[in-house]
Amino acid sequence: MSSVCYPEHMGTVPLETKRLILRRFRRSDAPSMFRNWASDPVVTTYLMWTTHASVRETKRVLSRWVSGYSQSDHYQWAICEKGSDDPIGSISVVDKNNRLAMVHIGYCLGRAWQGRGYMTECLERLIRFFFEDVKVNRIEARFDPRNPASGRVMAKSGMIFEGTHRQADYNNLGICDTSFYAILAADYRQKNHG
């Protein structure tokens, strides 16, 4: 086992993939966020937050997120296609443990952009960022097994399946099983540097 090594938090910095820009949210993103994913009950089925009923609700959420950018350990990215500044989803750290040097990633993408590999691109980029720049030791994510597409994103991004906890979580369908994927810094180094 490795000794305790605390992350070198740097906050939500701009990141880029082949097709996407990951940037900080702005309060002015509320109409796009509401339209593109937050108001869609299909998109929010397996999430812990309820479908937004109005742009006003989205504005309240964005206000909290934007206020958090003053903290170096706050990570909340808007996902935008290159050539457009219109957010189509979000990816963020939804939980963290500095003593374990661990971040837990959550994500959401508008239905119109699903199935194109965008979220895999985002997650791969965050994995690289958190291991190479922030120096975490563990990155994890979880999903409801009834939403296997989310698990496929984790697997394609190089994360390793760790098991399913029965009735250990909740979402908009109620109490649910939750399946975990994770990747350790040692896994990442071995995969990328032999």
**What is the CA-CA span between the terminal residues?**
20 Å
Give the spatial strand order of the biggest sheet: 1-2-3-4-5-6-8-7
How do the SSEs run, as a string of H and E? Answer: EEHHEEEHEHEEH
Shape: globular
CATH class: Alpha Beta
Secondary-structure class: alpha+beta
CATH superfamily: Gcn5-related N-acetyltransferase (GNAT)
Specify the helix fraction band. 25-40%
Mean pLDDT: 96
Strand content: 25-35%
**How many domains in all?**
1
Biggest beta sheet summary: 8 strands, mixed
Proper CATH architecture: 3-Layer(aba) Sandwich
Contiguous uncertain segments of 5+ residues: none
CATH topology description: Aminopeptidase
Summed up, the helix count is 5
Number of strands: 8
Query: Mind telling me the C-alpha Rg?
Result: 16 Å
Defining traits:
194 residues; Aminopeptidase; 8-stranded mixed beta sheet
Q: How are the SSEs placed, and which strands pair?
A:
Layout lengths: L14 E2 L3 E5 L5 H9 L16 H14 L7 E6 L5 E11 L4 E8 L8 H15 L5 E6 L4 H9 L3 E12 L2 E11 H9 L1
Parallel strand pairs: 5-6
Antiparallel strand pairs: 1-2, 2-3, 3-4, 4-5, 6-8, 7-8
What does this structure look like?
It contains five helices and eight strands; from the N terminus they run E-E-H-H-E-E-E-H-E-H-E-E-H. The chain starts with 14 loop residues before the first strand and ends with a helix. A hairpin with a 2-residue loop joins strand 7 and strand 8 (174-184). It is globular, with a radius of gyration of 16 Å. The mean pLDDT is 96. Helix 1 packs across helix 2 (55-68). By secondary structure, it is of the alpha+beta class. It has helices at residues 30-38, 55-68, 118-132, 148-156, 185-193, and strands at residues 15-16, 20-24, 76-81, 87-97, 102-109, 138-143, 160-171, 174-184. It has a single domain (15-193), classed as Gcn5-related N-acetyltransferase (GNAT) (Aminopeptidase), CATH 3.40.630.
